[in-house]
Every structure is written in C-alpha cells, then in structure tokens.
TrEMBL record:
Gene3D superfamilies recorded: Jacalin-like lectin domain (2.100.10.30)
GO cellular component terms listed in the entry, alphabetical order: extracellular space
Top-rank taxon, per record: Eukaryota
Stated name of the protein: Zymogen granule protein 16 homolog B
Keywords: Lectin, Signal
GO MF entries: carbohydrate binding
Annotated PANTHER family: OS11G0524900 PROTEIN, ZYMOGEN GRANULE PROTEIN 16 HOMOLOG B
Pfam families: Jacalin (PF01419)
Organism: Phyllostomus discolor
Ranges for domain Jacalin-type lectin: 15-151
Signal peptide as annotated in the record: 1-17
Amino acid sequence: MLLWLTLAVLWSTTCWAGQMFGNGGGWNFSTSPDYENDITGIRVSKSLIGIFKSIQVRYGSSWSEAFGVSGGNVQEFILYPGEHIVGVYGSHKIYLRHLIIYTDFGRWATFGKDDGQSFVVYPDQLGDVVTGIFGQYGPLGIKSIGFHWGDPRVVVPTVAPQSTP
C-alpha cells in the first residue's frame, strides 16, 4: 500500500505540471500568472538551422522575459484586443522547430518550419484560452513546451476588428 501511495505522489507531480511537447531536458521555464491581462502577443527567436532559441509572451502591453537562449531571428504575432489563443500545432526534433498559433478570431500565425514529430493542443474545456506557457530549454534553445489554459481575462467581442490596408 505504501508503494502505491508513493507512486501516486510521484505521478501526481508529473500530471500537475501539465503536458509538455518535445524531448525535454535542461532548464525549466514558466510564465508568471497574470490575473489581470490576457496574452496579447507571442515572440519567437529562431536559429539559422530552424531551432527555436527563445520564446516570449506579452500580457497586456508588457512582454515577459525571454525564455531560452539569446540570439536568432525574431518573429512576433500581436493579437487584436479581445483575441485569444485557442489552439496550437507544432513539431519538434531534439529542439522545438515549428508552431502554428490559432486564435478565436479565425487568425493564425506560423513560426518556423514543420519538421519532426508533430503535436496538436486544444483546451479540455470549451471557452478556455492559453493563459501561459512553460517548458524546458537546453544550450541551443527550446526543447519542450506546454500551455496553461484557463478563462479569458477580457470579455471577447462578437466581431473581429477590420484590418486597414
């Protein structure tokens, strides 16, 4: 019985941490919870060979720290007011190589090139959105990534804003 209790406790920490996609290993990272603002942007830095070196999210008008290693070419995606991330597709080899971010306004942003083992992530509960990210990084970049899900902080408008030419 004590063995089962020990195993249950050990397994529960794995489940509590959430699901990560990628090979893992290295240093852990996680965005700090923001109880007032939704994610309003995502920024990825890639190496010349396609490895994700670092990742950042923006809450309101402030960017989080960059998680990973410095350098690389930066690409960012800014969400409209009231827009949220509701799904993610990605792929990895040893390091993360590709993400497509899907929003509740029907928009998406592609980071990197699809290469390696793929994954798809959607929330368990209808209406939940990405509220944070976590994962692990190694000496060359991001090795795994996971997503925190929860209720949006800002009420969603019924119509997407019109883009100007």
